[in-house]
Amino acid sequence: MAMEALFNAGSNSLFTPIQSHKVTTFLPFRTSDSLPFSSQSKSQSWISLKVRDLTPLVGSKKRALKCMSSDGGESLEKGVRRKNLAVFVSGGGSNFRAVHQATVSGDVHGNFVVLVTNKHDCGGANYAREKGIPVIIFPTMKGKPEGLSANDLVVALSKYKIDFILLAGYLKLIPSELIRAYPKSILNIHPSLLPAFGGKGYYGTKVHKAVIASGVRYSGPTIHFVDENYDTGRILAQRIVPVLANDTVEELAARVLRQEHKMYAEVAAAVCEERVIWREDGVPIIQSKANPNHYS
Question: Locate the Formyl transferase N-terminal domain: which residues (predicted)?
Answer without folding.
Answer: 83-267
